[in-house]
Amino acid sequence: MWDDVCSSYLEIKKAVINSETLTAEKKNAMAILSYVLKNVLDLLHPVMPFITEELNSILFQGSEMVISRAWPKADESLIDGSIEAAFDQAFAVVESVRGVRGRYNVSPATKLNAVVSVDDAATEASVKDCMAIITELSGLADLSVAVKAAKPKFSASAVVPGGELYIPLEGILDPAAEIARLEKEIEKAKAFAASIEKKLSNQKFVSGAPEAVVNAERTKLATQQDIIAKNEAALKELK
Fold it and tell me: CA–CA separation, 150 vs 188, rounded Å?
C-alpha cells in the first residue's frame, strides 16, 4: 500500500487527480485508485474490522459491507515483470536525485539537470521509457540518458540500477565554498571521533561505566565515522 500506491501511483498521478478539470485521464486515475482502496479495505478487514467498515461506509456509500465481500484475488496474468523492473529503476533514479538534493541542501524548488550513464542499450531504453515520470518527480529541468555517458564537471554522483546518475552542481553551489564546507565538516567529525575513541580505549571507563553508557559512546563513534565517510565521498566527487 505504502510503496506501490502511495509512493509510486499517487506520486505519478497526483497532478492529474488534483486537477480541477474532470478529464478522461483523471476519471481513469480515480477509478484505479478507488478500485485499489476498496480492495485494501478488504485485505485489512480481518485485523481492523470496525475501522474498515467505517471507512467503507464513507468512501463507498451504498456498497455491501466489507465482511460480506469475497477475499481479493490477484490476476497474475496482468503482472508484467519487465514493466515492474522499469518502474523500480525509474524510482531508484528519483530517490537518487532526491538524495543528492538532501546531501547538498538543494531546495526541491530548484530545477536540476541530470545525466544517467547506463551500462547497455536495454537499460537506456528502459530509462527513456520512464523519462517523463523521472523528470516530474525529481524536479528536473533536463534529463539525458546514454550508454557510458561522461561525468560532467563538478557534479554529484550516485549509483543506480544498471548505471550511474550525475547531477551537475555548477551554478547551483559555489565549488570553493562547498569544498571548504565539506573539509570543515570532516575535520570536525574526525576530532569528535578521536575524542570518543580515546574514551573507549580507556579500559577503566569501559569496565567501570554502565553498559548502556558505553554502547551510547560506540553509537556516537559510528555516527561520526559515517559522517566522515559520506563527506569524504562527497568531497571526492566534487574535485
Answer: 34
Grid cell in block for residue 222: 559510528
SS3 content of the chain, % helix, strand, coil (to 5): 65, 10, 25
CB 74, CB 85: distance < 8 Å: no
User: Rounded distance, CA 236 to CA 239, Å?
Assistant: 5
Per DSSP, 230 falls in state H
* Nearest partner of 35 among 62, 72, 68, 76, judged by Cα: 72
Helix pair 121-129, 81-103: axis angle to 10 deg: 80
Strand stretches in the chain, DSSP E: 112-118, 140-147, 155-160, 163-168
Half-sphere exposure of 183 (CA within 13 A, CB side): 8
Contacts of 92 (CB under 8 A, 6+ apart): 160, 161
SS3 169: coil
Q: What does the radius of gyration of the chain's CA atoms come to, in whole angstroms?
A: 25
Q: Which cell goes with 220? A: 556516537
| Single-letter code of the amino acid located at 184 | K
- Over residues 143-196, the pLDDT tens digits come to 999 999 998 888 888 888 889 999 998 888 888 887 888 899 899 999 999 999
Query: Three-class SS of residue 5?
Result: helix
Pairing status of strand 112-118 against strand 140-147: parallel
**Reported pTM:** 0.68
Q: What is the rounded CA–CA span in Å between residue 9 and residue 32?
A: 10
Would you state the cell numbers that stand for residue 184, as one nine-digit string?
A: 570543515
- Cβ neighbours around 159 below 10 Å, total: 10
